[in-house]
């Protein structure tokens, strides 16, 4: 007899399918990115269709999804995640950031879906993102990250061609996110990276 696939799955099964932790799946359920319900015993059951729908939001032209990485450890160099769907601009970001004096590690994602997976595995010190992207755009990504406690230590900066009026017309952004206009102001981004580096050093000294 043919095997009939259930219309729902456990949070562990959803995590395995998406390649993230169970905790991340639970947070995505709470943020509305995944649809779920609770059994009488209080266990979450995730709608399988919403899991597949989230997977399919990643554009087919996107580069390979990020592979799991180890969590950052104290003393590691500054880590930066750039989210931008323009491949030529991503290459420019990589080249410019690589020349910064603090020599940060850089990860590049071409859409909000891939970025959420990255953030679900390890949160960088600095997130630089565009807003208009296919699938899960910057607006949805930032609102989801706002509800993930682990992302609270990441400084988030938007670099967009949208003006503030256009951004507000689409619901605005979470508090505390600096908005910069294109063309990309690399000098300001380097200043932000330097501020984070100084703050990390101060925290390191405070913990000695």
From TrEMBL:
The modification 4-aspartylphosphate is found at residue 130. CDD domains: HTH_MerR-trunc, REC. One of its GO terms (biological process) is phosphorelay signal transduction system. The keyword Hydrolase does not apply. PROSITE patterns: RESPONSE_REGULATORY. GO terms for molecular function: DNA binding. Residues 79-197 form the Response regulatory domain. Keywords: Phosphoprotein. InterPro entries: Bact_response_regulator, CheY-like_superfamily, DNA-bd_dom_put_sf, HTH_17, Sig_transdc_resp-reg_receiver, SinI_DNA-bd. Coiled coil: none annotated. This is Excisionase.
């Amino acid at each position: 007899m043919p095997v009939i696939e259930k219309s729902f799955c456990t949070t562990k099964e959803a995590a395995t399918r998406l390649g993230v932790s169970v905790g991340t799946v639970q947070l995505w359920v709470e943020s509305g990115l995944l649809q779920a319900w609770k059994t009488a015993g209080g266990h979450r059951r995730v709608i399988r269709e919403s899991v597949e729908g989230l997977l399919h939001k990643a554009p087919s032209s996107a580069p390979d999804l990020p592979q799991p990485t180890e969590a950052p450890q104290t003393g590691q160099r500054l880590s930066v995640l750039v989210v931008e769907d323009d491949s030529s601009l991503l290459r420019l970001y990589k080249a410019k950031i690589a020349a910064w004096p603090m020599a940060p590690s850089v990860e590049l994602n071409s859409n909000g879906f891939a970025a959420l997976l990255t953030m679900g595995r390890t949160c960088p010190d600095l997130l630089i993102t565009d807003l208009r992207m296919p699938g899960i755009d910057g607006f949805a990504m930032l609102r989801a990250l706002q509800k993930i406690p682990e992302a609270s230590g990441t400084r988030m900066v938007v670099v967009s061609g949208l003006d503030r009026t256009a951004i507000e017309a689409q619901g605005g952004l979470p508090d505390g996110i600096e908005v910069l206009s294109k063309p990309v102001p690399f000098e300001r981004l380097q200043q932000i990276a330097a501020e984070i580096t100084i703050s990390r050093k101060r925290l390191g000294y405070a913990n000695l």
